[in-house]
Design a protein that fits this description.
With 277 residues, this protein is of the alpha+beta class. It has a 9-stranded mixed beta sheet, with helices on both faces. It has 2 domains: 1-116, 3-Layer(aba) Sandwich (L-fuculose-1-phosphate Aldolase), CATH 3.40.225; 117-276, L-fuculose-1-phosphate Aldolase (3-Layer(aba) Sandwich). Helices cover 41% and strands 16% of the residues.
Length: 277
């Protein structure tokens, strides 16, 4: 028996990622969004499930680099916790048209639902990560990771300082995100402006903080993007506890971070490494 698209690896992957993120407490109500870049070969076996008359929506700015590219995306106003209950109502497969000016909704997003309002930020960030990773990065997750948000109220919103503190908060952090953490000023969400600023940071960093709001993370797979944020959030959780207990009395030294980078063959963000000894 031929499987339907709801049994595909990418729909099942979205169900798991959105459910896991909600259980973490990162995606209250309709908070957060998730996109995954697909190939034509991924969706071709499920063409029988596609809409006979796919809805077309124009993009606010052309994305020719993504022409003819399919994505699976979460919907605007949709709750992560409900994706597992009714995937077709809460997520959808879209395909950018041949000139990058808009997209068709091939499957899902029923009852005239539309993709996340953060779609411009996601697509611009996909473009940036394609360039930065030679096409390896395919997943982008935005969520409201509690402790990372909390730290933006306490630490100076400075890339090098935030990166260094997260590296010190958990030994594995430098290995998982040696490229550091990009940080934006507070900006209105859902706009091309925040999308472009995020994409600019994504050219250098796989993780970007939106102060007082949340975080963007990218990776080759949904697991990678989720795991990246999860790792940073664990470190932030440790740091919140440390600062609540009066602050650091000792920490991972610069030389220890250098040794860690050498052991795992990663190149850490030099400016964060050199911030202090």
């Amino acid at each position: 028996m031929m499987q339907t698209i709801t049994h595909s690896w990418f729909v099942q992957g979205m169900i798991k990622a959105t459910s896991d993120a909600w259980l973490k407490g990162w995606d209250e109500r309709n908070g957060g969004n998730l996109t995954l870049r697909l190939d034509e070969a991924d969706i071709a076996p499920f063409s029988a499930d596609f809409s006979e008359k796919p809805r077309y929506i124009a993009l606010s700015q052309p994305m020719p680099q993504l022409a003819n590219t399919p994505f699976i995306v979460t919907g605007s106003g949709k709750f992560f916790r409900n994706v597992q209950l009714d995937p077709a109502a809460n997520i959808g497969v879209i395909k950018i048209d041949s000139d990058g000016a808009g997209y068709h909704i091939l499957w899902g997003l029923t009852d005239d639902a539309v993709p996340t309002s953060e779609l411009p930020a996601h697509l611009l960030s996909h473009c940036a990560r394609i360039r930065a990773t030679g096409g390896k990065d395919r997943a982008i997750m935005h969520c409201h990771a509690t402790n990372l948000i909390a730290l933006t109220y306490v630490l100076e919103n400075n890339r090098d300082l935030f990166t260094r503190k997260l590296w010190e908060g958990s030994t594995e952090c430098l290995v998982v995100f040696p490229d550091g953490v990009g940080i934006l000023p507070w900006m209105v969400p859902g706009t091309d402006e925040i999308g472009q600023s995020t994409a600019t940071e994504m050219q250098q960093h796989s993780l970007v903080l939106w102060p007082f709001h949340g975080v963007f993370g990218s990776g080759p797979t949904l697991d990678d993007a989720f795991g990246l944020i999860d790792t940073a959030e664990k470190s932030a959780d440790v740091l919140v506890k440390v600062y609540s207990m009066g602050g650091m009395q000792q920490t991972i030294s610069r030389q220890a971070l250098i040794a860690l980078a050498q052991r795992f063959s990663v190149t850490p963000l030099q400016s964060a490494l050199d911030l202090y000894h």
